[in-house]
Design brief:
The protein has about 100 residues and is mainly alpha-helical. It has one domain: Methane Monooxygenase Hydroxylase, Chain G, domain 1, CATH 1.20.58.80. The longest helix is centred in the middle third of the chain and has 30 residues. It is elongated. The termini are far apart.
């Protein structure tokens, strides 16, 4: 695997891991373990940023005049990135809400 495929799979791997951490953060907060929730949010953010760096490589190529082919794999990777970002926002809101309510 090389080039475009590799970048897409990096995005998919990192953003998929980020989503998992964000879901685990919500579950931890729901159980009242806010330290674990924050730990999972931080791990998720680290994974998200790693995936975002892979995505930035493609943006830099295109900005430099190189054609970046858009195919189903790239669309899937971009969709996963956006869903991870959305879940990150929702997870933080839910953690804050659970914290205000004192857990469930």
């Amino acid at each position: 695997m090389e080039g475009m495929e590799l970048v897409c799979f990096e995005m998919i791997s990192h953003h998929g891991s980020a989503r998992s951490y964000f879901v685990e953060a919500i579950q931890a907060a729901k159980g009242g373990d806010f330290a674990l929730a924050e730990k999972n949010m931080a791990a998720g953010e680290e994974e998200f940023q790693a995936g975002h760096q892979a995505h930035a490589q493609l943006i830099q190529k295109e900005a430099g005049g190189e054609t970046v082919p858009v195919d189903l794999l790239l669309l899937h990777a971009a969709d996963l990135m956006m869903s991870a970002e959305t879940l990150k926002i929702i997870a933080q809101e839910l953690i804050d809400l659970y914290r205000k309510q004192g857990g469930c």
